[in-house]
Protein 1
Amino acid sequence: MYCKGACSGNIGCDLPPGAQAAVVGSSFLERVGNPPARWVGSPRGFCAQVSFQRPGSAGPCAHSPGRADGCPSLALLRKTGEARPTSWLNFKLHWELGLCCATMSGGTVRSLGKGSAPPGPVPEGLIRVYSMRFCPYAKRTLLVLRAKGIRHEVININLKNKPEWFFKKNPLGLVPVLETSLGQLIYESAITCEYLDEAYPGKKLLPGDPYEKACQKMVFESFSKVPSLMVSFLRKQNKEDCSGLKEELHKEFSKLEEVLTNKKTTFFGGSSLSMIDYLIWPWFEWLEALELNECVDHTPNLKLWMASMKNDPIVSSLPTDVKTLQGFFNLYLQNSPEACDYGL
Amino acid sequence: MAGGDAVTSTPCRSQEEECSFFLSLEVKDRLSQKMDLEGQLRKMGSAPPGPVPEGLIRVYSMRFCPYAKRTLLVLRAKGIRHEVININLKNKPEWFFKKNPSGLVPVLETSQGQLICESAITCEYLDEAYPEKKLLPGDPYEKACQKMVLESFSKVPPLILRILRTQNKEDCSGLKEELHKEITKLEEVLTDKKTTFFGGNSLSMIDYLIWPWFERLEALELNECVDHAPTLKLWMAAMKKDPTVSSLLTDVKTFQGFFNLYLQNSPEAYDYGL
């Protein structure tokens, strides 16, 4: 199944533009295994604009060739008044109609844990990313993949119950990891992002000028204390006084505010969004869920930047729901193996 | 001697006296060393330097800083005309914080007044801005591999610093164990690649980036930590033979003299050997 890329990407579908679903046809049900006891469709659901044919071919899905207005499942959905499949039964109905685009993108795929079979090689024309739905580091890679329109597939890893085979992909056992169809493995989020920018054509996210590129890296460096501060904050919540941590976070944000004030631009790389913005964004997404919005109260340019980021089509195609994130945090702090699949 | 020699703020020595320190170096190296010599050790109260002359790039450095050594190695390897200004890191000039708010070396300054900080960023900048003799591979995957090696090296510098600072040598065994573990990771990279250097059969960026800490092993009496890493030992020997590396090699005694003063927090540490 392929996304036809018919929408502008704003529809909030879990299937990335141009991405191929990891399985095709009847094997989908085998791959997914038993349906979850409660199928809770993600708020975004699935775009009905998919094709069972090869990418680039004309027409909607195979069951209704020649229909210009898309998959009949959309008609069914309209009929039932539902915007998206919201239950397993509903989904199965659509599936039996052979119409539903079963997205295997990061949004709804259950993570693989200990005892799971290792995935096969990466199909040609695709790059694979090992990820986790709530990992901010992996989010960087997903943002870049989308921003550059790179065809990819996502395999989520249960970080609280890692499959043994995953350590062959990255001895550190961390996400994100990129795997090419040649079996090349690249890990460390910033390295994966730079690799994607260099290896794939199209819009360059990093500037060509060596000095401008160095400036982006220096901003990245000055951001480097934020992730560990936020994790410390997450871990300390409700246990100890967090005002010290908030102070430190506030200090780090002031540094970033200075960058924006000096540059006099909306984004960290200039007047349009570029690599550095994507690299630091995922932690700003956490602010609301951690009730840390006050930390940007004294940094107006940073606040404006956050608003501009939320308006970006790529960023908004990968939103993180506050409640879902909080649910994840809750389970994560309890070291629950269910944490990584929260909300599915 | 390490690149970037310095004079103190008290009476300057004559150029001849400075040159006498370099009798052992080859003549062609002495010319570039003279450029390094002209770097004054700047400390609190010293006048800020003027703009960087066109055709030159300036590096703010310190003779014994391993991070700054990375930048000096790259400048030499690529044959980039540069001048060195050494900073007294225990007594920093106020103006230096305008060059780098964090007050750390190395910092690059171009003739247009552009400032670049963080050693790895300076090295990558130089490789991109000066196209001759590329040190980083062009292939995105090969370049990513070099960066992954740098990442797996990243625990070594803080470990070595901690070992240096641990006065009580008995307590070092735990740290030495950790260092040994990190070094084993690097040994694995070389044995998997089956090449002499970390980027292939010739020396490249990653080798220069990690070398300065290996340079210090002997002075810190840590040679044992590479005993179980024969391929890494061979790499170290090959590195010492490289013209760029050997032209900037610091001898054991000088290192030890510096370490001694450094641990006493002496502001004279940075001029040791002059």
Protein 2
Amino acid sequence: MEAITFNIDNGYLDGIVRGFKGGILSISNYLNLTQCETLDDLKLQLAATDYGNFLQNEPSPLATTTITERAREKLVAEFQYIRQNAGPELAKFLDYITYSYMIDNIILLITGTLHERDTHELLERCHPLGMFDSIAALCVATNVQELFNTVLVETPIAPYFEKCLSAHDLDEMNIEIIRNTLYKAYLEDFYEYTQTLGPTTAEVMGEILKFEADRRVINITINSFGTELSKDDRAKLFPTCGRLFPDGTFRLAKADDQDQVRLAVELYSEYRKFFDQGPGTERSLEDHFFEYEVYLNKRAFLQQFHYGVFYAFLKLKEQEIRNIVWIAECIAQQQKERINDYIPIF
Amino acid sequence: SLFRAEDISLIQLYIPLEIAQPTVAELGELGQVEFLDLNPNVNAFQRAFVGEIRRLDEMERKLRFLENQIEKTGIKPKPLTGNLYYGRTRTQQEIDDLEARLTEHEARIQQMNESQDTLQKRYLELSELRQVLRETAVFFEQAESRTDDPLLVIQREDSHLLAGNPSPDPEDAQDQRDSGRINLGFVAGVVPRARMGIFERILFRALRGNLYMNFAEIDEPVTDPGTDEVVQKNVFIIFAHGREILQKIRKICESMGATLYPVDSHPEKRREDALAVISRIEDLKHVLDSTRNTRRMELSKVAESIEAWAMMVKKEKAIYHIMNMFNYDQNRKALIAEGWCPTNSINSITYALRGVTERTGSTIPPILNELRTKKTKPTFHRTNKFTAGFQAIVDAYGVATYQEVNPGLFTIISFPFLFALMFGDVGHGLLVTGALVYILWKEKELNVKNGGEVIFDGSKPPNLISTIRWDMFFGGRYMIFLMALFSVFTGLIYNDLFSKPLNWFGTGYKFHTEHDHEMRVGEKLWTYAVGIDPAWQLAENKLLFLNSYKMKMGIIFGVMQMIFGLTIQIFNHIHFKQVQYIYAETIPQILFTVSIFGYLVFMILYKWSVDWLAVGLNPPSLLNTLIYMFLAPGSVAPSEVLFPGQAALQVFLVLLALLCIPWMLCAKPYLIWKESVRHRLQGYDNVQGNRDSLDSDRTGEVTPHNGDGGHGGEGGGGEGHGEHEEFSEVVIHQVIHTIEFVLSSISHTASYLRLWALSLAHAQLSEVLWDMVLANAFTMKGVGGTIALYIAFGAWFYLTVCILIGMEGLSAFLHALRLHWVEFNSKFYGGGGRAFIPFAFADFVEANGGPAE
């Protein structure tokens, strides 16, 4: 069915996004990038790729932050273009993608306000995909209740927020809890939604989101060691749409240290190898996660007629920007020996 | 010449390092050399002159910044004149100066921008403050009109508008009075209009409705100095009570991008403030104006020469890009360049090089060597504005292999002719001719105007598309002109003017009614002087006659063109010294075509030349004759006999054609095989590669370096002969080729029937249009008739131009194109070459939208 009807609304954008995907840097591009001596060389090399002359109006001593910013601007512009041309169903899907950025932005602002940073400075650091009109008003609020009632009630992520409404004051710990609760609600909701979008989208996005959920579960578990978060509270933060649920999450909820985490995850063949690292390897767990994410996202492009490509494209491109920034930082700080630690995409 | 590509030589230049840049500049102006990349393996940023290019990039960025500023200010940059001085490339010194100047300008303008921005911002704030004061004054005055005590009014307003507090707390009022009238319970400011809704909502939610808000729109739009965007803003004033709440409101206002202004609660104080603000605004305006003026002056100074600078930087950048393709010699004193150039231009190149040496006063002149090479050379046809369009048609199919016969030359006549066969109509032809005469007359102006329209940036796609279409049309103007002229000619032959015949010489038919027929029968008295007798236009059997005539005409011209194409092969074979292939390939192909289709043409002409009525025989069907020539060789049905001895001739021709097939099939592979055997017998098998390397002077595989050129070790350039071509491959290739030729000779001949089909369609369409639209109007009488004729003529003319000239013209063009690309070119044209693209400034000056803008 999808094969017949998908292209009516989404054929153009599907083509566009696959075209964009063709512009993702390849291994040989990265090889060239890693050979650069200065950031200006990097600029020259990037000019030969799909990035074109995105840096051409920058005065010469380049900063890595400028590169990040411009690269992100380009990605955001591409995403906005897709969003603007999307039909209703795809538009909703794309909006779902932006919710995660909204959550990040909200947390960023709340934390910033807590530390009494300048609001405008904070706003500049927000991800442009997660902006909404009243975001600036977030810094007025002093507790969760107020936060919700003043600002968030009219944002799309209000439903997620309802679940973590407690009268607690905002402190470091609570913000972290809020973030994870929000993410849990968001992931579960997004997962549910993608399962209604036809079998291919359900399959592709299911894979990706399940992994995303599992990654969060593992990360939460590991990061909670040594904090005052109780095990029960921790278990409440685990998203329930992952592959680890319910068996793995149950074990993880009881884990006390890294080894127990490893044991809990051992049963899942995809994840086992993340922990199987020899003593010499420098790859962190995070890197393994990113690698696997790239693998899943790349796989999304092998299927036709589904929305997963849009999500995958965004994530791959983000990974690419992370790579470029990594390489740029290595060049800027003369840390050439670690320059090859980026995660190749194609 | 257009017949063959020009001779191309591989040249090698030794350019002393210190004059490398002016030399390349000179060659760029000349535009006759295509440089080869001598370091293809070197990364873009590891090349010799990356530093310079980067510097120029930086200069370009500054130029863009300045240009942007100029554009924003609304100054028109002085267009680049044709003046050579401005366009010429500069010396190193001048570039350095320019860089310094650009930096200076940029810094100054940036500084001025900054100060202007701050001033602007202050001005903006003040004018907003003025607005706030004015609008709040209105609120307060309205209140004042009700009571004399303004303070009380505020309290009262508070009291009855604050829904949450139906009865005002006297203590609270006291509190506020106590707090010294500074914090009277209101906040005033300005907020962008677009944000108003959210602003209100958030305030309402945050304060749970405990506020009274009043706002007024500012009529004059405010320009944001940061983004240069016009923003509509609102003045608001919010009344609330309680220090905490006011604090909260302030915070929300700030986060929502609103600006707050202090407003005093005392009317006198407010008036004073307002006056002070107004005077300050006046002052600021003065300063602002003068800043703006200086900035404008600075910018207009820049605008004077920015185009010239931009051109200069662009050229310099191109020069360094070219120089990046060069090699250093051993002791890094000179650059070595290699490139293709037309052999004829070598003289002008040496002359240019000498000029550079003299001008720069260098002691060592650049040296030019001509190298011998086995590399495939690029194809270069010198064209002018007349031939360029035709050559473009051929190049679109495929660029000619180096020095093979170029169909472009024949296309000049054959293309318009085949087009005209399909488009033949005096009226349409004349209309197009008229338009083209105008375009050619105004050629210069239109070209310049057009050049101005082509703006080299993607930001204006619709404009770009329309200019591309215009460019196509304009580029082919001479072709279209010829096409129109030829159409007039064929129109005369077809005797067709908007589907009406011309009876200039008087028809050659006399009509009389035969008693047993209703219709009148024409009796031919004499032959009409030019073209078809106008009487046919009215004849019942007009279509029968015209179809037969045009069909046969199509076949005749088609066979002629194809045989012509085949004979061109001979020139190719002679030129490439493969005379034996003339016998092995060309002659059987020609014989095959002539014996079947040449015979068909002969029959057509013969049939025309016989007056069948006078002989008293039925004219035989040619199609059947041709078919039965193969199905039943040696016998001709008595009713179908054209001429005596036909049967014997046909048998001979069929046998000849059949003989040609194995001839084509075997002769060429046999020759190739024989040659390779001869090579082996003479023991050249191994020597061949060696000799080639000596010839080419640069193979480097067998003899690594032979020193007479003294150039660096760029090895592995020349390719040896593909001596051991698989013989079976040759055979298979030949089999395919033969089968294709035999089959296509039939389909290609049939393909020329499109000449008939399109010409028929064109004539019929134009007739229908005349009958349906215009002819009806002629039948009406009186004033109604006049009006109807007026309208009908408009419609008819519009449709004629759009459908008959525009659409039909395009389709005839396409079919003529196909006849050339497929039917004609396939007979002799390889088209496997590579175009010669010289390094020329003129090209990218044009590509960048020309001097204007």
